[in-house]
Design a protein that fits this description.
Chain lengths: 133, 383
């Protein structure tokens, strides 16, 4: 259903691999994907930024009822993270068990495989977060 | 601007209908609504569905339904706003009548989830979120709700046993409802001991795979006068917000519900205390709680107190989800908003059977697409 197609996947890899994003020069709102106009202040003036790789965990949950394509990974953890520059971001948590996690703990970004397309065998990668080492 | 009246409603029982197709369900609901209104033709049709393009790979529901009804020739259009799709159909139909371009419109909500496996449905339900970001990392609708739940309990220092009272209330109200998917009572312990879907959210705080279709006949004032059938006046307003609640200023506040509800109340010239029946969009227990607060029917962090004091029961000050809500009546995605509005109509025309709330003159239904990225507020008024 939610297949991985090469052009669709590649056009966002700069964000997914490196956390390269855009910041509105007027209001400071972070945009993960190339914006034309700011959702918050409607400015059209942006700067390219690399988001900080560390932040703190605001909340987390364990997905036990996965969507198609993620069956083999379940259960896995989804976290809501505030990066050091204040940007709030969702991401998977890795290299840990849920019982090791605590709200407010420091986490850092790392690059991991997110999943594989079941038919074309394309492997998709994305940032994930892990407890700070 | 012409006023809009509901002149007929049609509901199919919500269930896993293995032998009924998408077409069959929406046609059945439509015929029931037309028969209830006592008319056989309408000027146009609007069909709301969220999942049919994904699960049945069926689009073009407008022309399809017109054909099934033997009404090919009239304008018929499908509309989509995630799980609020049915309300989007009502909104569009109502606006057409208000504009004076139609005398009678059929609006239908339909979704048939049992044609998909659980994982397919879970993936399809994410079509209301940002797929390239939130869907891509494997987050689900329920995991987003779980994060909100966890933040909520933390900020307001409220235990799960308070919030989990909501599904208990819904099941209590569904007991005598012929079209409900789960017409039986459950205990709080059953909710609290049900397995996690996504911590802290438990199975009995969510909804299940459901098939259903609901339909309304909307008419203008002139047509309403000619029809010998119970009617209510309908006022609908809408609002939108970011798709991802975590990009908003506060994920524990749904501004779209606040805005849509205030707009509808002001157009109806009503205050919150005039609303005596409230239909909330309880796709999860926590969504109902945050909705109650965001729409101004409860203070922030205190919606659970209304539950605990019994105020949301059928004989309480603000009867809520009087036919079981999404939890117990069932939640066939895009069809659900039309069930909510049809149920308000049954209440206000004194056809709610054992669940009748007698004193109510006005009811409000809140229908949400995603986590309140689209919000519709529909007020029905006794006439």
């Amino acid at each position: 259903m939610f297949r991985i197609k090469v052009p669709r996947y590649w056009r966002h890899k700069d964000f997914r691999y490196r956390l390269n994003a855009w910041k509105c020069n007027h209001c400071g709102e972070t945009h993960f994907f190339q914006p034309l106009i700011c959702r918050k202040c409607r400015s059209r003036d942006f700067s390219r930024v690399t988001l900080p790789e560390s932040g703190k965990l605001l909340a987390y949950t364990v997905v036990r009822s996965p969507p198609e394509g993620f069956e083999a990974q379940s259960p896995y953890i989804i976290g809501f993270i505030e990066l050091d520059d204040g940007t709030r971001i969702l991401g998977q948590l890795t290299d840990c068990y849920p019982e090791e996690l605590k709200q407010g703990m420091k986490v850092e970004a790392t690059l991991r495989k997110i999943r594989e397309d079941q038919e074309d065998k394309i492997i998709a990668y994305c940032y994930k977060f892990r407890p700070a080492i | 601007m012409s006023k809009v009246y509901v002149a007929g409603v049609g509901l199919t029982k919500i269930d896993e209908h293995w032998w009924m197709s998408l077409e069959y369900l929406m046609t059945e609901a439509s015929l029931k609504a037309l028969d209830d209104a006592g008319i056989s033709r309408v000027d146009s049709i609007y069909v709301g569905s969220m999942l049919s393009p994904i699960l049945q790979e069926q689009g073009h529901l407008g022309a399809l339904l017109a054909e099934e009804l033997g009404l090919s020739g009239i304008p018929a259009i499908g509309v989509e706003a995630a799980s609020a799709s049915g309300a989007a159909a009502v909104y569009t139909g109502a606006r057409e009548i208000e504009s004076g371009r139609a005398n009678a419109v059929l609006v239908v909500g339909v979704d048939k989830m049992s044609d998909g496996m659980a994982e397919e449905v879970t993936a399809a339900m994410m079509s209301g979120e940002r797929q390239e970001y939130v869907g891509f990392i494997g987050a689900t609708f329920y995991s987003i709700n779980a994060l909100i739940y966890s933040l909520y309990m933390d900020r307001y220092n409220v235990g799960q046993e308070k919030i989990a009272l909501f599904p208990v209330l819904c099941h209590e109200h569904a007991v005598n409802v012929p079209h409900a998917q789960y017409p039986f009572k459950i205990k709080l312990e059953t909710v609290l001991n049900s397995p996690y879907i996504s911590e802290p959210l438990r199975r009995f705080e969510t909804t299940a795979i459901a098939d259903g279709a609901a339909a309304l006949v909307l008419v203008n004032e002139e047509t309403a006068k000619k029809l010998d059938t119970p009617k209510t006046e309908l006022i609908i307003e809408a609002s939108t917000d970011y798709l991802t609640p975590f990009q908003r200023e506060d994920p524990l506040w749904f501004p779209a519900i606040q805005l849509a509800t205030s707009k509808a109340l002001s157009r109806a010239k009503l205050e919150r205390q005039d609303i005596k029946i409230l239909e909330l969009y309880d796709a999860t227990s926590i969504m109902a709680i945050v909705s109650l607060e965001s729409s101004g029917f409860a203070e922030r962090g205190k919606a659970w107190q209304l539950l605990e004091r019994g105020e949301l029961g059928l004989s309480g000050a603000l009867p809520c989800n009087t036919f079981g809500g999404l939890k117990a009546r069932g939640h066939p995605a895009g069809a659900t908003p039309v069930y909510q509005i049809a149920e308000l109509h049954l209440q206000l025309t004194h056809r709610a059977g054992k669940n009748q709330v007698d004193s109510a003159k006005n009811g409000l239904a809140q229908s949400l697409g995603g986590v309140a990225s689209t919000a519709f507020a529909t007020i029905l008024r006794e006439v």
